[in-house]
Amino acid sequence: MTTALNHRTRFTDRTALVTGAGSGIGRAIALALAAEGANVVVAGRRRDPLDETVTLIEGAGGKALAVTADVSLATDVQAAVAATVDHFGSLDVAVNNAGVFRGGAPVADLPEEDWHSQLAINVTGVFLALQAQVRQMRTQPAGGAIVNIASTFGVHTRHPGAAAYAATKAAVSVLTRGAALDHIGDGIRINAVSPGAVETPMSLRPGESEADRADRARATLPLGRISTTQEVAAAVLYLASDDATSVVGTDLVVDSGGTA
To answer: Does residue 131 fall inside a structural domain?
Structure first.
């Protein structure tokens, strides 16, 4: 996979931190930010996928740094922010994308450990990341922009077997809006993007092939297909950019019309 540098330069001389950037939506966001001029710090629990993302960015002429971090641990998130500032001098954009899905079972049958792991990463991880990122950004004259990745599962729709995951992503949406109100006075804009089905393994149902998924999308989604990771990344970059300077506390849905 290669990505040429974009002709747009909305993030030149800015530094972005993206969690969960070793694959899927997170990697697409990191590549898109770098293509528009950002220095990008990619964070996640596994080093090898992060290094692959860095190689892709550098191969396209961008600048990137990989930092291993578990977002459910305050010390890891704080260290990731510190590494970002130490290496590139500032933290101007943060995208909190790290998340896990433990589903497929009704609430009464969901293992308690699956509930706790989703809560720890999807909700507490975003909370801890917001704390560390805001504390840095409010020391900067230009403030910053933060985008949290929620989901259409949650505030927008529900699905059998995914109640716990939906609850965590609904929490991300509400947390985003509350934090946006708390910190816009600090010069920090906070918003969310809620993807629907996206071209990643997470959107495949048990035993379903990509061709099966495409057939299902043609039959059920108004657009007739699921979203690409690049389309979700474009929404994130809009909210993080100066194109959205008056957008505060929104939850932007990218779902091929599935919740229209």
So the answer is: yes
Q: What is the pLDDT of residue 2?
A: 44
Q: State how far the Cα of 140 lies from the Cα of 198, in Å rounded to an integer.
A: 35
pLDDT at 1: 44
**Catalytic residue from among 11, 88, 153, 165:** 165
Q: Is the pTM of this model over 0.70?
A: yes
Of the candidates 230, 190, 198, 199, the residue with the CA atom closest to the CA atom of residue 36? 230
pLDDT of residue 201: 77
How is residue 241 written in tokens?
């950019």
| Domain contains 130 | yes
pLDDT of res. 133? 98
CATH code of the domain covering residue 205: 3.40.50.720
CA distance 145 to 128: 16
pLDDT > 90 fraction of the chain, expressed in percent and rounded: 88
Is residue 165 among the annotated active site residues? yes
Q: Are 18 and 33 in contact (CB under 8 A)?
A: yes
Q: Sign of the CA dihedral 74, 181, 243, 28?
A: positive
CB 95 within 8 A of CB 17: yes
Quote the domain boundaries for residue 241.
15-254
Is residue 9 in a domain? no
Q: Sign of dihedral through CA atoms 224, 230, 233, 235?
A: negative
**H helices within the chain, ranges in order?**
24-35, 47-59, 74-88, 112-118, 125-137, 163-183, 210-220, 229-240
- Tell me the CB-side half-sphere exposure of residue 251, using CA atoms within 13 A: 22
User: Which residues of the chain have a pLDDT value below 50?
Assistant: 1-5
The count of domains in the chain is 1
Residue 10 covered by a domain: no
